[in-house]
# Entry
Amino acid sequence: MIRVIVLIKQVPDPKVRARLKEDGTVDRERVRAVMNPYDRNALEEALRLKEVIGAKVIAISMGPLKAESVLREALAMGADEAILLSDPMLAGSDTLATSYALSKVIKMLGNYDLILCGMETTDGNTGQVGPEVAEHLGIPHVTYVEDFELRNGYLLVKRLIEGGYQWLKVRLPALLTITNTANEPRCSTFEGVIRALKKNVRRLSLEETGIEKGRVGLIGSPTRIKEVRRVNLRRRRYIIRKPSAKEAVEELLRELSSKGIKLVMNGG
Amino acid sequence: MVNKSGGVLVYAECKRRKLNRITLELLSAGRYLAGKLNSEVSAVLIGYKVRELAKELICYGADRAYVVDHQSFRYYVPLTYAKVIADLIISSEPEIVLFPADSIGRDLAPRVAAKLNTGLTADCIELDIGDYEDPISGRHYEKLLYQVRPAFSGDIIATIVVPERRPQMATVRPGSFDPLPRDLGREGEIVAIPVNLGGEGGVMEVIKVVEEESSTDLRDAKIIVSGGRGVGGPYGFKLLRELAKELGAKLGASRAAVEAGWISYSHQVGLTGQIVKPKIYIACGISGAIQHIVGIREAGVIIAINRDPDAPIFDYADYGIVGDLFEVIPALISKIKEVKCNK
# Structure
């Protein structure tokens, strides 16, 4: 049976605007935590493989204990197993440390054929963890995957590039990062939620996975945040409301020209 | 004295026998940083039949151009490319390595960073050199790379540093730096790197590429007319195109409009598309997502047209018209025609 691992992250609800605490760090406490939306697309691809060829789907997350809720949701959507790597030593891990830790969990599990994750997370937006996990595991990866087909021992992968796409042939095992346009992720059903209640989220600590303490957390992360600031993007906000479009346009052009701004630059 | 190692390395890209604009931007960034470090800028170009572009890299700011020219590198694939770059970094020891934040750089850089066990910052929009005091160890570091990137959807800007490990690596958003003028008189060294495929070949290969022939470069546009979800469909973009034509402007779009399939990705403005700096930006039916606003933050004047008086775009605009764009834009077009006739 094909074994598919899906990497899932819990993120602050992307619909809520991030707040800064007084010390300049982002306030994660007051925002609801949800499954990274792009990871839903990755999970959806895995679940389709399960339906079509009977793949076994294993969801893995790294985060605080409360991240268990996104794994419960993954189980409710149809994942077969869920694993949470949680340890206070992991706090503050950057993408290198995170990808190292996740790769150790995957190595511990042993055999797998395919690893899927979202093309990035909505809190970090780096898209780095996927390719970095693949490098730690020494397997090929493809980012921005819109579609793929499983063939005999290899994958045919459609990858989005600027202004188009490409098809690649990739040997298994491989890691793919899935775009948010690849599919429409399913919702969990009532039956799914009930089924998930009967399942356990397996918790792993650093010791069980053989993760070196010096390679994770703030100490193991090469990057440091020097400074965080909010930029003021607000502008003049001269807002025109007129009953007719013609009047509005006339007022706009009058205002622009009073400020010496020329809309028609290449005219006479 | 200029340090041979310890400089800036730029990952160069080309398409149809021409260097990509982002490569010129990275060379410009590299020159700025190397000036502050009193070191050199190198560029590495990997591909097939790309040798003749090495001189161009020098014209645009490189002191040294490394070229890897082999048919097995005709298309980008991460494994083989990452090995070449990592080997080059190990042998030439740059302080800083810059990649474009595009579908290649964002794919390749993390692979290289993990190979070298170093840090990587994605999607930088500013780079600089400066000191850093580590709050935990109390250690003081001089001349680190300040990697400035938007965080949490855009209006929070973070400065990242990598104090201990080398090289310091970043992917850089297109449009963040202006290319230097092409200087045919610049001198530099061209180094051909011999190809050693090792065991990485054959694991993956590109079998087909489908790309638009022409892509739209909005980064030099003086005026941009841009459309969002409120444009409603390809028909609405026809109207915007008409306005753009009257103004001698280029056509842009929000991510929502591109994802709806109304217009191609090469028109996309914002952190997920192009960062633009026009004199005038006209946002039509664009709600004003932060990632879009950050991508136009250096525009001279922002004019918003939107039906919804509560649309966030009005907060970020210099001028706004609350109204139906299908009425406002035709009125604007006829007014512009009138102005032109009177001149």
About this structure: The mean pLDDT of chain A is 92. The CA atoms of residues 132 and 145 of chain A lie 16 Å apart. The longest strand of chain A covers residues 141-150. The helical segments of chain A are 37-53, 68-77, 95-109, 129-137, 190-197, 206-209, 217-220, 245-258.
